[in-house]
Design goal:
The protein has 415 residues and is an alpha/beta fold. It is built from 18 helices and 16 strands. A hairpin with a 6-residue loop joins strand 15 and strand 16. The longest helix is centred in the middle third of the chain and has 19 residues, at 235-253. The chain is globular and about 65 Å long.
Length: 415
């Protein structure tokens, strides 16, 4: 595309570390080099992103991975069809617990260094103790009902014997408000993207309890949400945008750029917290209660391991959790609708001339890789994994209905 007359594309985003690819595409010139004047508009909540896209304010957006699925299944309050032709990285979320409660876990090692199972077991003991004392349920915040945060939190709690909606209450709060909600006592804990866990930890009001990467390693989080009408009417522009974002993801993945990326994201126009906090987040470094740091492996991956590929198996896992937690009824008809919104074909079309490693499959078995492994690709070398769930479960998208039945039976076993 000609850069002399760039085409304006308006994108909504939230103040989160995993908006890095969109922000980098604009600030480092990757979008402009593809003929796009990328206009970024900062929003405060995912509901605002959803509504402003529905009424035509945004062409594309930094978006929760389950939201395009919810739009395809007509679960949105406003009529809207969203495509997901690209992911915006893997991981990036964590679960933070109020410092006062973390002390009651009585862990012999720093809470931030516990495995997901150890942290869940400790939380279960705490909940049982509170029950015997007649105390109220713990309240955890998530950012939206149709979010990876909600589903990964529920999955983790349930697998540790804690029943969501019975043993704990889960409420929705915008990401940037989580630290203040914890400090005020409104929340006892939350699941949110960085840097808001680190902000609470830095303030002394929260302690890292576990992370998305410990619950499900190398797991999906945000996507590029695209208004279906925009995608249909502007295929050349969409291709150019995907190329720009892919190049930006490559830049973000280079550790030599981490400090510069943190400085960029720290701007008040974007996240608005100190660059040092964001730099630690990008590296997966979290402070313990003692003031030391613990390193979380594979906490956030912006490019490697097909981190920007919109796997249908990711979409189908989110759908399985939607059914499990009563957000939608199971129907084989839904599969066609989900295939219509997650679009690996658009991703491949946009990147075919870049010699980018492109998965040859649209879906994969999730949780099966115990270590990194090279897999089949249409071009270039592609390594995936490890991708295990902390409880050893395997999700085979070809066995979707049976998987959902097993998940619901686990849920019903702890009424």
């Amino acid at each position: 595309m000609e850069t002399s007359n760039p085409v304006t594309v308006c994108a909504g985003f939230l103040a989160l570390m995993d908006a890095a690819i969109l922000i980098t595409a604009k600030e480092k010139g990757f979008a402009l080099n593809e003929g796009i004047d990328l206009q970024l508009v900062k929003e405060s909540s995912w509901a605002n992103i959803r509504d402003r896209m529905a009424i035509g304010h945004f062409d594309v957006a930094h978006m929760l991975a389950p939201m395009p699925i919810a739009s395809a299944l007509d679960l949105m309050p406003l009529p809207l069809k969203i495509l997901a032709p690209m992911a915006l990285g893997l991981g990036g979320n964590a679960v933070t617990l109020a410092s006062s409660l973390a002390k009651e876990l009585s862990s012999p090692i720093p809470v931030a260094e516990l495995t997901a199972k150890e942290a869940g077991d400790g939380l279960l003991r705490l909940i049982k103790k509170r029950n015997t004392q007649g105390k109220r349920r713990l309240i955890f915040g998530v950012v939206h009902p149709f979010s990876g945060h909600n589903y990964e939190l529920r999955y983790w709690l349930s697998a540790c014997g804690i029943q969501p909606d019975r043993d704990v209450e889960i409420v929705v709060i915008p990401p940037s408000l989580m630290p203040d909600a914890l400090a005020s006592g409104m929340l006892d804990g939350f699941c949110v993207g960085e840097p808001w866990n680190s902000v609470a930890i830095e303030n002394g009001t929260g302690v890292l309890l576990t992370t998305k990467s410990r619950i499900w390693r190398n797991s999906p989080e945000k996507v590029l949400g695209v208004n279906e009408t925009f995608a249909t009417e502007n295929p050349v522009i969409l291709n150019a945008l995907i190329r720009a974002l892919y190049k930006a993801a490559t830049w973000c993945n280079n550790t030599e750029n981490t400090k510069a990326l943190a400085e960029l994201l720290s701007s008040k126009n974007y996240i608005g917290v100190p660059a040092e906090i964001i730099e630690n987040s990008l590296q997966g470094k979290f402070k313990t209660a003692a003031g030391n740091f613990t390193l979380i492996e594979d906490f956030f991956i912006p490019h490697n391991r097909a981190a920007t590929f919109p796997w249908l198996s990711h979409a189908l896992w989110f759908y399985s959790q939607m059914v499990r937690w009563g957000h939608v009824k199971w129907s084989s008809k839904h599969l066609k609708q989900i295939h219509s919104c997650y679009r690996p074909d658009l991703y491949r079309s946009a990147l075919s001339n870049l010699q980018a490693p492109l998965p040859s499959a649209n879906s994969k078995v999730e949780g099966a890789l115990k270590e990194e492994q090279f897999v089949g690709s249409m071009q270039g070398q592609l390594a995936l994994g490890p991708d295990g769930f902390f409880d050893g479960e395997i999700f085979d998208p070809d066995d979707l209905e049976d998987y959902i039945k097993r998940q619901i039976s686990i849920h019903e076993a702890h009424p």
